[in-house]
Amino acid sequence: MKPDEIRDRDQFGRLLEDRGVWRQATTLEAAGELTARWLEGGSSYQPGHLAPGFDEETSLIAEELAELNRNGLFTKESQPGLKSETAAQRQYVTGFCSAAVAGELLALSTRSELVTIAHAPGESSSAAIPVTLAGTEVTTVLGSSENPVTEDQIRDWAEETNDSLALLLADSWYVEVLDPVWGRNDVLLPAVLGSLTRQA
Prior knowledge:
seven-stranded antiparallel β-sheet
């Protein structure tokens, strides 16, 4: 490869320089901060997201997600609520956190109608709570643990970040919080943030 052919992006269009920063992230707090920067447009690399930016629907909740990431929940997946003639979504957010944060988010389910599913480190579980419908077809479900449990999963995280963070995620709690009301967007994320700041 000639010097003028040095690539600055990976095959998904993500800046390699931004990926390099993830090689230094060894705590949930660091991962959360880097995710917040990505959500705010300050980075084009997010582990496991095979594009330089997020999809359009995430832009509706990106600011709130950045706050969650800066307050103890390293988010992995999310979606806003949506309700139309052809589709429906329940708002949800998932992520990695400490046992204390998982406890606060579980407690949120006891004082609200929101549903929290908490997966302990090393737990491999699978359930199916519908959160996205296309017509009458269920297209997205929650209820499965995303903790890297197998050797392959840990290796995948290590390749996208670093060995230390991959092992930390394997030892972290994985939580899924959803609003049971289809299409609602103004309850879940403020309530989750309230629980995170309550715990801090």
